[in-house]
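Ticket reopened. Same input as before:
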Amino acid sequence: MDLKLIRNLVRIMERGEVDELEIEDDKAGLRVHLRRGPSGSYAQPSVMMMPGATAPGPAPSGSGEGTSTEAPARAAGMEEVTSPMIGTFYASPSPDTDPFTAVGDRIGDESVVCIIEAMKVMNEIKAECSGEIVEILVENGEPVEYGQPLFLVKTR
Amino acid sequence: MDLKLIRNLVRIMERGEVDELEIEDDKAGLRVHLRRGPSGSYAQPSVMMMPGATAPGPAPSGSGEGTSTEAPARAAGMEEVTSPMIGTFYASPSPDTDPFTAVGDRIGDESVVCIIEAMKVMNEIKAECSGEIVEILVENGEPVEYGQPLFLVKTR
Amino acid sequence: MFRRILVANRGEIAQRIIRACRELSIETVAVYSQADADSLHLRMADETICIGPAASGASYLNIPSIISAAEIADVEAIHPGYGFLAENAHFAEVCRSCKIEFIGPDSKTIEDLGNKARAREMAMAAKVPVVPGSDGPVRDEATAAKVAQEIGYPVMIKASSGGGGRGMRVASNEPSLLHGMRAAQAEAKAAFGDDTVYLEKFVEKGRHVEIQILGDRQGNVIHLGERDCSVQRRHQKLIEESPSPILSPKQRKEMCAAAVRLAKSSGYHNAGTVEFLVDGDGNFYFIEVNARIQVEHTVTELVTGVDLIQEQLRVASGETLRYRQKDIQVRGHAIECRINAEDPAMDFQPQPGLITSFVPPGGPAVRIDSHCYSGYRIPPNYDSMIGKLIVHRPTREEAIRTMMRALDEFVIEGPKTTIPLQREVLEQGEFQKAEHDTKFLERFLSAAAPRPSGPASGVAENRT
Amino acid sequence: MFRRILVANRGEIAQRIIRACRELSIETVAVYSQADADSLHLRMADETICIGPAASGASYLNIPSIISAAEIADVEAIHPGYGFLAENAHFAEVCRSCKIEFIGPDSKTIEDLGNKARAREMAMAAKVPVVPGSDGPVRDEATAAKVAQEIGYPVMIKASSGGGGRGMRVASNEPSLLHGMRAAQAEAKAAFGDDTVYLEKFVEKGRHVEIQILGDRQGNVIHLGERDCSVQRRHQKLIEESPSPILSPKQRKEMCAAAVRLAKSSGYHNAGTVEFLVDGDGNFYFIEVNARIQVEHTVTELVTGVDLIQEQLRVASGETLRYRQKDIQVRGHAIECRINAEDPAMDFQPQPGLITSFVPPGGPAVRIDSHCYSGYRIPPNYDSMIGKLIVHRPTREEAIRTMMRALDEFVIEGPKTTIPLQREVLEQGEFQKAEHDTKFLERFLSAAAPRPSGPASGVAENRT
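Engineering reply: fixed in the latest deploy. New output:
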């Protein structure tokens, strides 16, 4: 995203005493909506990439969904543990043992939360964030792709 | 995105104390809508690139130019007499007579302002508006296309 | 060769003509109506002139405006494309009198062939089989009833000056014949200012097969094989192919020879098409001549390797045909789908407006002729064809596979189009086995999930 | 035939492979990096799997990820495209051990041919002419000097494991030979972990002519004529054509036979290319084998009518070649322009970023292979090729005219591209008369209006 552009637009608004600015640029696939409160502060800035604009982009699979859920989750003090590789998700070290973690468990950066099997290799996956497991987003034995959210973690 | 354009539009509005400005330029794929509140500040300016933005529209020839000059001209109490057909523009009834009209002349709806020759037929063109001729936009003997502005008329 | 020509048309065919000109280093002048100011082909033309408002009558059909533009822009010739003024004998004559070459046959040829009864007589004179029918116009009801009795019901009543379905009625018995004749006469009178009608035997399960011909001013005429256009709805072709999957080599040879005979006997030059109806027993009957380039010329171009528009320009400028009959070889199989902005679920209602995304298919064996692009606004003033998708493969089966793949790939967001319908048609066993006739599509449409049916009298203008 | 395969590539070639699969009713699994989530071909695939972040090493070159995706998606085969893992013998071997078909030759064949010195030996054994040079590797400076003396300066120092210009030096005398040898060894060591080099006579004014071959697992090998790729910049091809305008029928026959001999002797199956250098006297010398499909396979497809990707899939699945040598006929002339998002005025600096408008050319004789569309953002992580424009006409002259027309039509707004440069090249008499050699483009670039010159050592990766 072009931060310089947004900075420049804000500058133009300040100088021209413009209270609200809306730009729709299909060419750039960009929609910018900036609003300035009566006090002179920006009450509700929002910038969004338009849904593909003219782009016939494919239906977002893993990564796309990841990105979109990520933002609101983070806003509410949530984080996602995403898969660092493509493979098969296992919740427990072996079929007859308990899962690494469950909803309600507290985890730390180094906690192993699952195994991803790729090419017959069992890869232990660490949380890389700390907090409380709120939701497990994948079923045991389910294939996952790179970047796919696995766990929802409440970080504060 | 053309920031200079937005900056210039804001400046033009400031100078001219214009409350509302709307420009639609399909050729450039641009729609500009700027509104200024009664207090003198811009309550709701909005600039958007039209979906036509991606359009590889042809370089504007006659009609396009007509439209874009038209808007500001009209705003200032101006009108254009446009060509109702493609043909050759003649300012006077015959090579050795005076032109039908000149800058500064007052004309009425029925005033013949020029001749357009199409397929060897001389078509007398009426003003279809009344006011004062401010500018003659075409040279004698020049070919004109449909919709091409011929005269600029101050209507009030 | 011409130095500079005017293109008196719009949309994909205007663009097609400009493409040919660019490859031959001919300068182009594109005329356009105000509704077409954003057209893609204007960007490719050397000069553009706005000739009028959106209404065709005031722009693309306005002869004085077009001639005036041609004179101002100093062109040597006018290419009329198809539709609009392409088969207007008067326009061809005006061009001649203004010393501007009309890229098409002579005014006289257009006039003769434009009159259906006259064209039928010419075909008979050239020993080209015609559908059994009246010898010339039928003026009174008694004669009509007598002729119908002779040739056998069902019969078709046709307006001599008609075209594309207007002034046409089918009658299965004497009362419907008499009623239909009055209706056809009234319609023809209103549409063409001429109420002359004639009778023909109605061939029910026919295939539409047409022969492409090309002639020069030196009297040479060749054919470029045939096209099968049996997938039609109300005389509107939706899918065309070459070669026809149903012709035997013998039939093909006979039909092509018949087409060339007729063209030669009528002094035909430039590109043209002789249309035939082929019945279930393999008999073929002359229908009419289309004295112009056709929408579906592309499939012939792909299987023969001949650029028909370039050849039109060459022969119109006086050159002798570069090809002899033996040079023409048909290779592989080509299929065209006309992509229309219409909603098949809503009785093919046109869908003008903004195309928000337009991503045509590509890759091997695919050709696209379209004037559209992402952000193009389809004007409501003209026909709804927004492009042609053509494929060329060694066999018909492979061509069908490629066409399916290409239709699947085609992204058009905004208007509804005929793409999903064409995709379905290609899936049909009847089409795949080439057992379909000209009524196939209408049967398929009425058999498919409930769709609002069209008006019973349904005959629409044909521009093929 | 396969039921389901994985496409281990991106961009236009991924799309090209999916197109072939769709026409053969093979299901496709497309793997992609996060940077390619908006790629057009993902829309056409039956399943898509994100395999890693933008960096190739972590995605398209990550063998465990790709194999893992193949296992999870339950595919029978992997098509590697070109570049990335296409000529990685280890990857081919991993596929085999995982019982996934690798769509390409055997691991062993890739390995043999990937070693330049070994490939040279194989060529000599198959009686394929090679550039005069050292018999195998040259290990010390004294030997190098002696060999160079024998074959005559200028000579070329080449890394045995090298590819696409890396580890290559030209020397015109003994001091530059010794210096160049050290430099090439160091470069090769760093790039390939192998500092073995050998010497070859440097052919100065050469044409790059390559033969397309196709073989099955039953030992049948045919050729599909040649391609001339002499318009290059730093070993990067920019314009390719078929047939080569400079070969005599005798030369063509000899070269094609030599290519087939080499392929047969190396147990080659699937598609491949044998590259030759043709000198000013018409002698031809083997350069290397590209054991994969190439970017420019399209021109061969157009002149032969054979869908090379479909044939790759057929023979990889075990089918016997559908074509015999006598079935292959070259018709007309095809030219390809690789459209790169690069600024030729700024030393071909890549131009990643948003394509605001993308309107490809169309009409007769034009083929487009591109994964781009209006609104597509070119990721900065991969190569700069954004599409291929290919034309096919009866003659070379007509093909050049059509290519010019099509380049003129091509609208790409946003990044700068090579289109204006290619347009200029087509105008050059040297190109039109086919008198250009592989140094033509660099001469043309330095003769043209002042451009910042590239780094002196300029050898870029070749992915052709």
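Chain B touches chain A at residues 1, 3, 6-7, 10-11, 14, 29, 37, 41-51, 53-54 (CB under 8 Å). Residues 36-73 of chain B have pLDDT under 50 and may be disordered. Please confirm and we'll close it.
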